[in-house]
Structure formats: structure tokens, C-alpha cells
Amino acid sequence: MEFLLFVGVLVILFWVGSVSSRLSEVEKRLKAGVALPSADQESRSLPEHQPSQAPGFLQPKYQPSQTSHSLLNSPAIATSMPQTSLRAQAKPLTEAQQTELATNWLNKIGMVALLLGMVFFFKYAIDQGWINPWARIIIGFLVSGLLVYLGELWKEKYGSKAYALSGGGIALFYFSIFAAYQFYHIIPQPVAWVLMLIVAGTSIWLSFRYSSLTLGVLGFFGAYGSPLILSSGQDQQISLFIYLSIMNLVALIICLKKYWVELLFLGFLGTVVDYGFWANNYSNYQNTFSSVFFIVFSTLLIAAGAAALLRYHKEKNSLPEQLEKNLSALFIFAGGFYFFSLWILLNNSYHNFLAPMVLLGSVIFFFIYAVLDRLEYRAVNYCLSFVASGLLVSASLWQFDGKAQALALLGIALLGTSIGFLVKREELRVWGLIVLFMSLFKSLFEPYTLDDKVFLFNAKFGLMLANTLAMLFVGWLYGKFKATETEKNVEQGLQIVAAIILWLAVSWDMFSGLAGLGSHSVDNFMTFWWVIYPGALAAAAFVSRRKQLMNLALILLLASFIKVLILPYGDHDPLFVNAKFGLMLAQTLALFFVAVLHQKSENQSEASDVMHVVASLLFWFAVSWEIVQFFQGSQSTNARNLLLSLWWIAYAVILMVAGGLARKPVFRKVAIALFGLSILKVFLYDVQALDTPYRIIAFIVLGVILLSVSFAYQKNKETIVNFLEADGQNKLI
């Protein structure tokens, strides 16, 4: 009796608080001098500044001119007109709206306080022994029914506040049934099941009737929680799966009226939790396939149902806000549940069935993607295509092994990017590119086998070559078809990666396939490949006008230059007839060749001049090093030093002549530098290190050459000056 009196007092306080809030709002409006129109006046009257809508042929044809528009925007007139008529701006909440918002929150907090008060009262009554278990449950049912009834009674008058009462009553119904079954054991499990379903059905019906998400959530909480809180401790697999499937159908039916993604989430989460508790306790070898069927059916039902409802509500323009992110997360979670559940069920005992079932999931999500892709929900499209592509990749990895996995990934990548271009879907192209790089890394880390020892004719090199061609093909597709703004640099990036992979593939294959020739021979062959590849790449870049490939050729040329310099000599290599000198000579020619192509393609001289200088100095160093290496360990130091001086002087003359003939001032500058170096060597080193006969020869040759150069310059001074001036003008131009 005291408890009912307490509830009655709370209801009266609820009513008095609502009336008080309404009176407060009326007082505020009266103080502000705002009239309180009647309901009829509110429904019939129009604002004075808003003209009534007339038919089209009665509308005035006057349009404000530019002059009138400027007058309206003038400061004098603008200050005299209401600001709301000049520009639309976001208005802050009025006091009435703030009061309404506050009372809504107070209403919800009051409902929670009421529930807590009743829980505390139950606890106190149990401790004092005032009421027996049957009386407690009956009181709980009565109070629950009273709250639901008051919510129904006051729904039109108080709106969402009344729905909170109904929600609290439903929550108390669940608690009372649970207490009667679990705590006091006064009702059997079938009766508790029936009562739980009745309460859940009532909550769902009320949410459907009032369009109240809160009531729907409470109904689903009880419906999906019943298998857990009313568990009998026995395996009832088929009954549980049928029950969960029916509840998922109910969720979809409710969403026909309003697309509540929250209910779909709750249904999916309830399915996952109930199935997880069952699987943890009762899953075994015998019931595996029934579990697999339930997983496939539930995923198809929830994901496909959510997609079908999205199209349905899209046509009716009844979709809620913030839909895209929530729905995308639902599809991600559904795909994850499908993947991990099947992996746990089938990986050990039925591994052969794992790949086909995961492939089936990929087909399901690709079908859902095809249903929704034209609705242009970017996040949804990306998530669906991600789940479908991920399942397809997983199926291929479980179906194949070794190098066949890389080939399968390569096929998926080419298929995805090709279809993405054909149907003009960015997300398919993106996931295709990601799978393409997965195939690339799989090919790179795939080890060589005993059958992969034939140079260039083995599976390992074939995989890397296939990835190179695939990247070039996909890059060609990006250049052929129009892509989005975010994909504008993909073609260039793929070409760069393809060029690097080919360079690496051949180098790696030389290291593995030519190992029988010895490390020194392998090193020579690899260095030769590093020397000729940048030249070939630069030629391809020049023909196709690809600046990024030309820059890559320069980088690889620098790498080959360093490798040539550190390459060691072999034992007993003859003078000028050895691999080291041949590679330095090839590097020199490659530098000259790339310099010419770079100058023609870029129409610049700075980078090409640098390469010309490096090439000329490399050849000078190559011959000098050959002389030093040839006389190494012998007593003929006079001959070595004399030959070095003669070579430096002669090479400076050659560069001076070549610079004049080729109209390359950079060669003249290098020649002058070598003349200076030769003079320093002769006057500072040779005069002390050489014997008298060798010293005489060195000075005579140096003097003759310097006099000859000076005489030639004086004789052709005017021609040389004109040449230099013309070159300077060309540089300025």
C-alpha cells in the first residue's frame, strides 16, 4: 500500500511539473509583450509581411533591378530594415526551446530516478520482510502496467515525456519477469519465455505505433536478452537459430516504417552475442554445418535487408541523418562476423570448405554492393567493396599456396581494376590497386626453389615480371580512362614502381641464377645491368615523354656510378682489357647518352652539363686508375708517373678540342681544370719523384702542349671569342 502511494505521489509530481513548465512559458511570453493567439488563429493567420500565394498568372512580373538591389544594400536603408529580412542566419534557441529541452532531459532523468527508487524499495522491502516473493512480483507487474498505461494515456498531451513512462514500464516488466524466474523460481521457463515475448512484442508494437526508437530498443533488448537470462542450460540450437532469425525479420519489418539503423545494429549485435554464448558452450563437430547455414543466412538477411530498406526509403525520401556512417559500420561488422565465425568453425575440422564458404560471402557482399552503388553513398560503397574484396582475397589465400597465391592475387587485382574502369567505380579501382601491391609483396618475398635456378626462366622471375606488366597495364588504364582528381598521379606512380621492380627482378635473378659462375662474375654482370638499364629507361622516358621516368633513370644512373667505382679488379687483369675498365667505359657512355636525352627532353643544360662533367671525369679517372693498377707492385714508378702526366695533359687537349667541335663550353672548363692539375703535378711532384730523363720528357711535353694551345688560341682568338659570346647569349636566352 505504501508503495502504491509512493508511485501515486510520483505521478502527481510528474503532472504538476509539466503544468508548472507550461505556466512558466506563458509568463515569459506575457512579460515579453507577446500575444498568445488561440489555436484557430495560429492555424489560419499569416504573417503580415508574407503575401498570400496567388496563382501563377496573377503573380507580378516585376523583378528588382540592379539599382534597387544596390539601394537595398545601402547602409542608410539597411539600418532601417530588420536584420532578418536582409540575410538569413542561424537563430539561437529561444527561452521556450531551452526550457523544452531541459524538461525533456529532466523527464528522462526522472524516469531513471523512479526506476532506481523502486529497485531500492524492493531491496529494502526484501531486507525488512514486508512482502513475500509473489507479492513483490505482482507489485512489479502492476507498477509496470501502470507506467505503460500512463504513457498511453498522456501520449498526445506530453509526447516524448509520456513515451519515457512507457519505456520505464517495459524495462520494469523485464526486471520483474527475470526476478520471478531467476531469483525466486516461482514461474517455469516456458511461462517466463511467453511473458518476455509478450512484453517485447508490446514494446515493438508501441515503437512502431509511436515512431519511438527508445521503445524499440527496449523491446529488442528484452527479445535478444531472453535467450541469455532465461537459459535452461541445455543445447537448443535449432530453436535458438529459428528464434533469432524471426527476430531479425521483425527488425526489418519495423524498419519498413522508419529506417532505424540502431535497431538493425541491435538486432545484429543480439544475434552475435546469443550465437557466441551458444557456440562457446555447445558448438561441436556434429552441429557445424547447421551453424554455418545460420551464419550465412543471418548475414544475408541483415546485410541484404538493410540494403533493400535503404533503397526503399531512398525512393520515399524518408532516410534519417547520419545514416551513411552507421550503415557503413553495420556492413563492416557483418563482414567481420561472417569471416571470423566461419574461420573458427571450419579452419580445423573442415578446412577444405573454408575457401568456398568465404567465396560465397564475397559474392553476397558484391551483390549488395551492386544493389547500392548507384545511390552514391561513398562510405557505404567503400565499405561494401572492401568487405567483398577482403573475403575474395581470403578465399584465394586459403585455396592456393606458394606462387599460385601471388598469381591468384594478381588476377583479382586486374579483374577489380578493369571492372572499376568499365563501370566507373573508384572504390573498385582502389581495392584492385591494393590487391595488386599485395601480389607484388607476395612475389617479392616468395623464395627461390631448386627449380628456380635457370636465369630468367624460372617461376620467381616470372612472377615479378608478371607484376611489372600488370602495373604497366593498370597505369595504361588510368591514362586511357578518365579517373577522379584523387587518382591523377596513380599512372605515374605505377610506372615508377614497375620500372623499379623490373630493375630489382633482373638483379635478384642474376644473384640467384648465376651463382654458379662465382661471386666476381655475378658482380660484374649485375653491375653491367645496372649501367645499361638507366640508359634504356631514359630512352623509354624520352620517347613516351615521361618526366618521372627520366628522373628515376637519373637516380638509377647515380647508383650504377657508385657501384662501378667500388667494383674491385680481378686477379691479373690486363691493361684496358678487363671488366672493371669496360664497365667504367660503359658507365661513361651511359652518362653521355642520358645527358643528351635529358637536355632534349627538359630543354635545360644544368643537369646535362653536370652529367657531361661527371662522364668526362669518369673516363679520365678510369684510364688513370688503369695505369696505376697496371704498375701496382712493380718498380717502374717513373714510367707510371710519367704516363699519368702525359695522359692528363693529352686528355685536357682532347677535351679542349671536343668542346670546340661540339660547342660544349663545359668541356673547355674541365680541360682548363685538368691543365691546372697537370701543371701542379709536373712542377710539384714530378720534379722530385721522376728521374732526370723522365723529368725532361715531362717538362718538354708540357711546355710544347701549353705553347701549342696558346698559339692556337691567339691565332683563332676572334673565332673563339665569337663562339663564347654566342654561347653566353644562348645561355641567357
Task: List strands and helices in order, with pairings.
Blueprint: H1 2-31, H2 39-44, H3 66-72, H4 75-80, H5 83-86, H6 95-128, H7 133-153, H8 155-158, H9 160-183, H10 189-210, H11 213-229, H12 237-254, H13 261-282, H14 288-316, H15 323-346, H16 354-372, H17 378-399, H18 403-422, H19 426-444, H20 459-480, H21 490-513, H22 519-544, H23 547-566, H24 579-602, H25 606-630, H26 637-661, H27 665-689, H28 692-715, H29 717-732
Topology as a string of helices (H) and strands (E): HHHHHHHHHHHHHHHHHHHHHHHHHHHHH
Gyration radius, in Å:
43 Å
Query: How can the largest sheet be summarized?
Result: none
| Total helical elements | 29
- Please provide the count of β strands: 0
Q: What share of the residues does DSSP label as strand, in percent?
A: under 5%
Overall residue-averaged pLDDT value: 78
Helix proportion of residues, in percent? over 70%
Separation of the first and last Cα atoms: 106 Å
Structural class: mainly alpha
List low-confidence stretches: 1-17, 34-90, 726-733
**Any idea what the shape is?**
elongated
Overview of the structural elements:
This protein is an all-alpha fold and 733 residues long. Helix content is 79%, strand content 0%. The protein contains 29 helices and no strands. The termini are far apart. 32% of the residues are buried.
